[in-house]
Specification:
- 32% of the residues lie in helices and 20% in strands.
- It has one domain: Aldolase class I (TIM Barrel).
- The model has no long low-confidence stretch (mean pLDDT 95).
- It is α/β, with parallel strands linked by helices.
- The protein has an eight-stranded parallel sheet.
- Strand 2, helix 2 (48-57) and strand 3 (61-67) form a beta-alpha-beta unit.
Length: 223
Amino acid sequence: MHNVAPSLLAADFLRLDQAVAFINESEADWLHLDVMDGNFVPNISFGQSVISQVAKDCTKYTDVHLMIEDPGRYIESFAAAGAQGITVHAEACTHLHRVVQQIRAAGCKAGVALNPHTPVSVLEDIIEDLDLVLIMSVNPGFGGQKFLYRSLAKIRQAYDMIIVRNSPAIVQVDGGVGLQNAQKILEAGARSLVAGSAIFKADDPAGVVRQLKAISANPTALV
C-alpha cells in the first residue's frame, strides 16, 4: 500500500484552516509541509509557527520536509512544533548521520531527501537508519514544476537498496506528481506520493486524492 501526502505549499495561504480541514476529511494519509529558507533553495515558505498552528488541527501524519541549510540547528524546534516525521537534505548536512540521530532522538521518523543531481549511493552508509528516502523529481524550491522522468531510475535504485539492505525505509517522491505519472512512480518502488498543485489546483481535490489512493502497483525487487 502507498500513502498520499498533499503538500500545503500549493494551498491558499489565506485559508490554511480550510486546507487542513480538507486534508482531515479526505482520504489523504499525510500532510506534507515544505520548509524553505531562501538559501538552500531560492524560495521562502513558512516555519515553526505555521506548522505549530497547522499541527494542532491536523488529524493526519505531519510530514515536514526541511529544504534549509544546516537543518541540525532546528530539529528539536520542528519536533516541538508538531512534526511527526522530519526529512533533511543530504546536500545540506555536513554530518548527515548525526542529524538523523537528532531526528530520532527528538521522537520523529527520520528521512533524507536527494536532489535530482545527487546519486542514491550517498545513502549506502545510512540506509538502515532511515524511515524514508525522498527522491526529488524536480529541482526543489518552487511548486508546479514538471516531473523529471529520469527520476524513475533513481526511485528504482532507492527501492532496491532498501530491499537488499533490509531497511525499514520507504521511498517518497516529490515534484510534479499527478494522475498522469503516479502509476509509473509506484511501479518503480515509491510508497509515498507528495502532490501539491495536482491536488490543490484541481477542480475536485478530494477526487484526485481518491484516484491517487486507488492506483495499484506492485514493484518486483531487482535483487
